[in-house]
Design a protein that fits this description.
Largest sheet of chain B: none
Helix content of chain B: 55-70%
Radius of gyration of chain B: 11 Å
Number of strands of chain A: 7
CATH architecture of chain B: Orthogonal Bundle
Radius of gyration of chain A: 17 Å
Order of helices and strands of chain B: HHHH
Strand order of the largest sheet of chain A: 3-2-1-4-5-6-7
CATH class of chain B: Mainly Alpha
Structural class of chain B: mainly alpha
Strand content of chain B: under 5%
Largest sheet of chain A: 7 strands, parallel
Number of strands of chain B: 0
Oligomer: heterodimer
Chain lengths: 247, 75
């Protein structure tokens, strides 16, 4: 009997696949037998991710999802899909008083608008099969608030609501739509300078399981969502945070 | 530049004009908290175009340190 979590025969696209969570998701899905299509802006890092995948018909396309034209071109190149994992995103710490419209627009374009428009284009181009699975990578920041992250929290909150709306609209086609809400995960985003190492150590105390997440922790749950074993799950916001939201 | 930085600090920390001195340890101001910390870092970027990472900001102690660091990065 095949493993419950086999992704054999499935073609899955992963955005933000050049590093961090997206890279781990791509590797795990490929290890479970999926054909993975990677996308991100950085070609070199996409190539690196590709090299990490076990043998298969995997491929990558570099694209800036905030560009309407590049998004359209990407969708045209994609085959029909069994899975879509929308993971592209970024953080920016800034108190509300210092928000600049350009930063606001960019954050929302990358975190929210590009995901919505990608799905819209995929649906219009009939690139998503019936019984497919769509997964958004959101964040606990959408629900558990820390100062300086209002734009990020707002965009991820909007993404959560969009997940549920899309789930309802696509249910007749048996396409399920869910979101993962990770706590803090050890990726380069964490060490980009906005938070000091000391502050991170203090923040670690808020994690009952005693550590931040690893990209593989998130990847494990995406495998479940992409596999047939999750066929009855839709519209769910899945917190995955080492217990952070318990406190 | 120094005058403007002093004024911005007074604004963020709701201090009377002319209160801030170069030798002040800014984390000792009465209303200093994590919000003030974030606001000062954001203010330095917004008003002077200087982006100081949290790790580097830690080593700045006095208002004078802030002024010197901003001058250094603006040069």
């Amino acid at each position: 009997m095949d493993s419950l979590f086999s992704l054999q025969g499935k073609t899955i696209v992963v955005t933000g696949a050049s590093s961090g969570i997206g890279r781990a998701i791509s590797v795990y899905c490929a290890q479970q037998g999926a054909t993975v299509i990677l996308t991100a802006r950085n070609k070199e890092r996409l190539e690196e991710t590709l090299q990490l995948l076990p043998k298969g018909n995997h491929n990558y396309f570099s694209a800036d999802l905030t560009s309407e034209e590049e998004l359209k071109n990407l969708v045209e190149k994609l085959p029909v899909l069994d899975g879509v994992i929308l993971n592209a995103g970024m953080v920016k710490t800034v108190p509300v008083q210092y928000i600049k419209k350009d930063d606001l627009d960019y954050m929302f374009n990358l975190t929210l608008h590009s995901s919505i428009l990608l799905i819209q284009q995929l649906l219009k181009g009939k690139k998503i099969k019936s019984e497919a699975s769509i997964c958004f990578i959101s964040s606990v920041a959408s629900q558990k608030i820390t100062i300086g992250n209002s734009i990020y929290s707002a965009a991820k909150g909007a993404l959560n609501s969009f997940t549920k709306s899309l789930a309802l609209e696509l249910a007749p086609k048996q396409i399920r739509v869910n979101a993962i809400l990770p706590g803090m995960v050890e990726t380069s985003i964490l060490h980009d300078g906005a938070v000091s190492e000391e502050q991170l150590q203090i923040h670690l105390k808020n994690y009952p399981l005693g550590r931040f997440g690893k990209p593989e922790d998130i990847a494990g749950l995406t495998v479940y969502l992409m596999a047939d074993v999750s066929k009855w799950m839709t519209g769910s916001l899945l917190t995955l945070d080492g217990g952070y939201t318990l406190k | 530049m120094e005058k403007e930085l002093f004024e911005q600090l007074e604004d963020i920390l709701e201090l009377d004009p002319g209160t801030v001195k170069s030798s002040d340890v800014f984390r000792d101001y009465e209303d200093w908290d994590s919000m003030a910390n974030l606001s000062v870092i954001a203010m330095l970027d917004d008003s002077f175009g200087v982006n100081i990472a949290s790790q580097d900001f830690k080593s700045l102690i006095t208002v004078g340190d802030l002024v010197r660091e901003v001058k250094k990065r603006m040069a």
